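pinging the channel bc i need a second pair of eyes. not urgent but kinda urgent?? the chain im working w is below, pasted from the shared doc
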Amino acid sequence: MTDDKPLTSFAPPPLSAALTVAGMVGSSLYFFPKIEHPDATIFTNVVFPEILSVKELIAIRLFFAFVCFVGFATAWLTPPVVVTTPYRPKSRAPRITFELAGWKKHFPFTSWSWNLLGISFALNAYIAYQVDQQQDVPDWMVRMGLMLWEVAAPMTLLIGAVVKYALWPAQIKKSGRGEGFMTPRALLQHNANVIMAMAEVALLGGIPSHFSHAGLSVLYGCSYVLFAWSIQTTLHGQGPAFQYFFMDTTIGTEHTIALYVLLSVLMLFYGLFCTVDTLLHMVGNNFTAHATFALTICSLVCRFRD
């Protein structure tokens, strides 16, 4: 008979989940295409050179990086976030409400992606500056700049869509209003991320995203899964805790199925972002069309009030 008492110590992931993550990581690395001679000039490309110069492009990217840094820094200034995870009935995790304060506010997937977006904008601004000054940029840095962008940018659409169509409505249903989603920091991380990413791809530099690099989203997702497994006893001291019910390692095969769904969703939104990029190239250099397209995407996934 299975013991259904709440656990008070670390809950290792089921073997099927561990094998799933290992297999996904191995497959993504094995099939990932090589970028042997990356072209650093993709970071100095300007979609509308008659409107924007390379120096202005660099300045805007640095401003976007600064906005992300502000969102990062305010984690220490805003009140703690109270988390009550809606665990599955068979979960053996203690039903305890816990708080995310200070550095722990960077534990959520949204914060991970927000911080990564800021690093991406800062690095890509630096690469563009070096190229504009006719300085050599190491191949590894160009690869890193491209890959960081290809990971961070598609995640903006995923986060915006999940908040707008799932999390925010669920919170309204629970308490009558979108508590926690209308704070300045939350609005930045759920909306400004989309706006900045769409501005970059549609109006600024148009850094490309490649369908063949979809494995990056899987590697990113697996990295977060490993992180979620590792911090389960850090969130509170009374047993394993999880920010998201589908990361709960105590629910057995349901957790493994959830991982397949999660990784599939990450690849789906990666593909959607690449499709957006492709459609913008098909439109051509028409500022009105690009701006309209970007505004349409933002309106589909951004939400600012109840």
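so The chain has a mean pLDDT of 92. and Helices lie at 15-31, 54-73, 109-132, 139-175, 184-202, 215-230, 253-283, 287-301. — does that match what u expected or am i reading it wrong
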